Amino acid sequence: MEIAKSPKYSRKEFSTIKCILALVLFIYLAFDTVSANVIQAGTDIQTAINSAKAGDTIVVGPGEVSRFEVDRPLTIEGQGSPIISAALQKPAIRVSSDDVTITGFRIKGIGKDSDAKFNYYMQNPAAAAGGRFDEPNSAIVVKGYGFSLINCSIFGAQVAISAENVQDLVLQNTTIDGCDTGASILQSARVKVAACRITSCKKYGLDIEKSRDVTLDNNSIVNNTNGGILLKETNGGIIQDNILSMNTFGLSLWNASYNQVRRNRADHNYYGILVTASSNYNNITDNLAEDNSRSEIVTGFGIGISLQENSSYNMLIRNTAKGNFNGLEISKGCKFNAVYENNASDNKHGIRLNENRNNLIFGNNFMRNDINAYENTSLNIWNTTIGNYYSDYTGKDENNDGIGDQPYSLPGPQSHSFDSRPLIRPLLTGLDGAMLRDEVKKYAVYGPADDEYPTISKQKGVMVISRKASSSPPKWTDSRAFDASAPPFQKENDF
């Protein structure tokens, strides 16, 4: 039997065949992509998802549509604001894939109902076997990386958006209204919330915990019963250009580090900006804290910007606090914070310090406050080469150098502090970042151990606080806050 031989082609013929095959493959793939790229879904979105390929876009028209789960990289685009309703322990949208974008939906949540949840699990043992009894009724549950929610609205949920162990999460131009918690974001990284409105939540507008690289930009966080934004154990964040109004606290940093809080407006809160047990170079700069008071909590009481409970090594720079009970406040065990170039006016207290030592306060303007500056059971540093401006200072300036000849005594029980170089006129132009670091390194000397009383001396007209004896005391020069190798948000141009 004769075996057929493969035909032989010349090099030119073989090259031509390869080109033809490549062209056929290209045409096939191109037409296949076009035919599957955009899918028009009906009310049953899940059917469209199940037939889609990674990278496809599913378009959904107006009206009531069914709940769905996205288990592959897709864009789900609502047109005409289609409505999805969550159910008990069944989110409206569940995302279990990476690289998912959802836009243009209205989502009805379901509130907390402990009795109904108990009955649900009793009647659905299969769900109980794989479920968590502590899981809230969430409108959207996110488990995948690279999720974006854009131009949506969510209302009435126990938790509007629940995300855990997520990276590259984006919430943009989205409204959250009337939920218990707006967004619960846990153990996540590279989170961005921008141009969102979060209002009338019973607990928190944004609850972000144990996360990093969080950017909160240009949001309106209004009328949330407990807190507007909680950043707990969250590091490396940028919180900027937000409106924080009519919350119990507008923004709270709790055990948080390396965050930039800048150009926010906080008004009509009980606390405008609250920093608790947070150290390691949080920079609070260029914020406006105005008319913070919540008379339904404590009549007439409200704090503009507050550092509390051992918050140390932070910066308060170029903030404006006016019309509050306490404009600026540092309370209970806070050390080595630098308070510079702030304007506190028309408050009950311009700045009030309680039970603190070795904070550096200089170059600030305290004007028309009932009490411009107050120190209770504290010993802090109130001037470097310059002090602060106090509108009630009555000393003279015989040599016309702009610095008062008599020190300004800080009022308050057990206060031993003086501003030795009070300014005659308000400070209008301040120090740049390099000069500020030089001032802090020169004058902010590490102080006593907690059980020691500090020594205080006057060196060339400047009050310097230090502890009695130490073989090798740490210095602020060792601090990353003033080190060229510090993270980018700690460098000079961030002051």
Number of strands: 46
Q: Rg, please? A: 30 Å
Low-confidence stretches: 27-36, 446-454, 467-495
Sheet with the most strands, sense and barrel status: 15 strands, parallel
| Number of helices in the DSSP assignment | 5
Helix content: 10-25%
Shape: elongated
Summarize the entry for a quick read.
With 495 residues, the protein is mostly beta strands.
Provide a descriptive summary of the structure in words:
With 495 residues, the chain is mainly β. It has a domain at 235-495. It contains five helices and 46 strands. A hairpin with a 2-residue loop joins strand 45 and strand 46. 43% of the residues are buried. Mean pLDDT is 84; it is low at 27-36, 446-454 and 467-495.
Keywords:
495 residues; mainly beta; 15-stranded parallel beta sheet; 14-stranded parallel beta sheet; 5 helices; 46 strands; 38% strand; elongated; disordered C terminus
